[in-house]
Amino acid sequence: MKNSTWNFIVLSTLIGIFIAYSCYLYFGKGTSSSSAPHMSNLAIEGEQIWQNNNCTACHQLYGLGGYLGPDLTNVISNPQKGEIYARSFLNSGVKSMPKFDFTEQEKDALIAFFAHVDATGYYPNQYAEFSKDGWVKIKYK
Fold it and tell me: Do 49 and 121 form a contact (C-beta atoms < 8 A)?
């Protein structure tokens, strides 16, 4: 009887610690450590357009997605490309990219989405540091 009471106390304590830690991570200070910029409403609209047109089938963000089109993670800050380049391929399509006939509002939204993605990181991340224990420190913008 004494052993089962002790097991119950230990199990209850562990469950309580798990619940408290989970609440801390999801609702407390554990979630505020990210310094990632929040998306504007226009960028959110651009992300929705990106998803609705299944752009990930051909293009990548952070190296994830299709391989028919280029990675667009840093298209806005790229000195050889930039916003004008992005706007031009949204206007007319390029090679195998279809012409979507986006409105000016939709183009602005997609550019805002690309600018947000660009502001959050690099791809490929050539500034990563690898430690001997296997952890990778990634440099963020």
Answer: no
Which helix (DSSP H) or strand (DSSP E) does residue 137 occupy? strand 136-137
Are 61 and 71 a contacting pair, CB within 8 Å?
yes
Domain range for 22 is: 2-31
- For the stretch 50-70, pLDDT in tens is 999 999 999 999 889 999 988
Q: Is the pTM of this model over 0.70?
A: no
64-68-71 Cα angle (round to 5): 45
Of 140, 111, 136, whose CA–CA distance to 123 is shortest?
140
pLDDT tens-digit profile of 71-81?
Answer: 999 999 999 99
Q: CB–CB of 9/86 below 8 Å?
A: no
Same domain, 114 and 84: yes
